[in-house]
Design a protein that fits this description.
By secondary structure, the chain is of the alpha/beta class. 31% of the residues lie in helices and 20% in strands. The two termini are 37 Å apart.
Length: 358
């Protein structure tokens, strides 16, 4: 499923195309998509396909098409402080974007069938926290992934404000998914080739809305062949943050607010427009004619006598007047610079920076 928008050269191109096609419609979703480079979730050697609106699969590793993820993010109507459950969490790409929106006081859990994919997701998450400047521009709710079949979640598990299932759900499992949702919550999942948004309006009432025609691989069914009852999937606990962690969150929030105030009134740096590709010149041959008797015939010409007039399109003439765009300078990590400038012990600075390598 995918191919709804044209391919881009980089992550920003991809997001521009998704916006133009109206798959991304809100600023918070756009910011989350721009902050997480989709290419970082591809294996080496496959990254050139990262910015195409296509699904990608290699072994157990799978990414849905960008237009699917953007519709899911919009349909979830995410807000700060919400709890989120990702059933079939895969590489963690979607869960990481969700974490940028729900913030440090939200809950961000994922269940994934394959152990190797959970390990891959944790590696991608660690890479994001340690090396991406986007981490310092947001307050983040770190995803927690567990291995297991999402159809085997323990019956006494807590409910969530938002749920997404990344595999095709059959009708007989629809109610099972709904029970995991809090009243007032939103569940997004593919049912019978339709990406569907379900809102729980009461203890036993729901509203459904079809969003998009899709094609998903079905959920892996429970294994009953050996006669043994499968082990129940235990979701991560709803842990309360420590006082030390809360202090770090509020110090970083205060510094980020000061930086915003310092930068107020300054002109916003806009993403430079990419220069148009140079057009090739068109050549038009002009033949010379002579009178022979009373007839007008073309005069024979050899290669030395060829006369060509070069025509330049108006677009090319205008392009001559456009100065080449200077390479975009890397964005400054103002929060990091602010923390490093504080008169604090190095160990405390390292803690405030989450021991980031950059």
């Amino acid at each position: 499923m995918g191919g709804a928008v044209s391919a881009g050269e980089d992550n920003d191109d991809l997001i521009d195309n998704l916006k133009e096609a109206q798959y991304i419609r809100t600023e918070r979703v756009e910011q989350a998509f721009r902050a997480i480079d989709r290419g970082d979730y591809y294996l080496d050697g496959y990254r050139e396909n990262a910015y195409k609106d296509l699904a990608w699969k290699h072994g157990n590793i799978h990414l849905s098409a960008p237009c699917i993820y953007s519709e899911v993010m919009e349909a979830l109507k995410l807000q700060q402080g919400l709890s989120f459950l990702n059933l079939g969490s895969g590489t963690g790409y979607l869960s990481t974007m969700v974490g940028l929106i729900i913030g440090p006081f939200g809950v961000n859990h994922g269940v994934e069938l394959h152990k190797d994919v959970v390990e891959y997701a944790r590696e991608r998450l660690e890479e994001f926290i340690k090396n991406s400047d986007s981490f310092d521009r947001f307050e983040f709710c770190e995803p927690h992934f567990v291995v297991g079949n999402c159809l085997e979640i323990s019956s006494d598990s807590h409910q969530y404000d938002r749920i997404y299932c990344g595999a095709g759900v059959q009708k007989d499992h629809e109610n099972y998914m709904k029970i995991l949702l809090k009243v007032g919550g939103i569940l997004v999942m593919p049912i019978e080739d339709q990406l569907t948004q379900i809102t729980r309006t009461g203890q036993s009432s729901w509203e459904s809305k079809n969003i998009l025609a899709v094609s998903f691989a079905p959920l892996v069914q429970r294994n009953r062949t050996d006669g043994n009852k499968p082990e129940a999937v235990v979701l991560p606990p709803l842990a309360v943050r420590s006082l030390q962690d809360l202090t770090r969150i509020y110090i970083r929030r205060t510094l980020r607010s000061l930086i915003t105030d310092d930068n107020a009134g300054r002109s916003t740096t806009q993403r430079p427009q990419k220069r148009k590709r140079r057009r090739f010149r068109r050549s038009r041959r002009i033949n010379t004619y002579v009178f022979v008797g009373n007839q007008l015939i073309p005069r024979p010409m050899d290669s030395e006598d060829d006369e060509c007039i070069e025509e330049e399109s108006k677009d090319e003439e205008l392009e001559k007047d456009i100065e080449p765009v200077k390479p975009e300078e890397p964005q400054v990590n103002h929060l990091r610079d602010k923390i490093l400038s504080l008169p604090l012990p190095e160990s405390l600075k390292a803690y405030l920076l989450f021991y980031r390598e950059k």
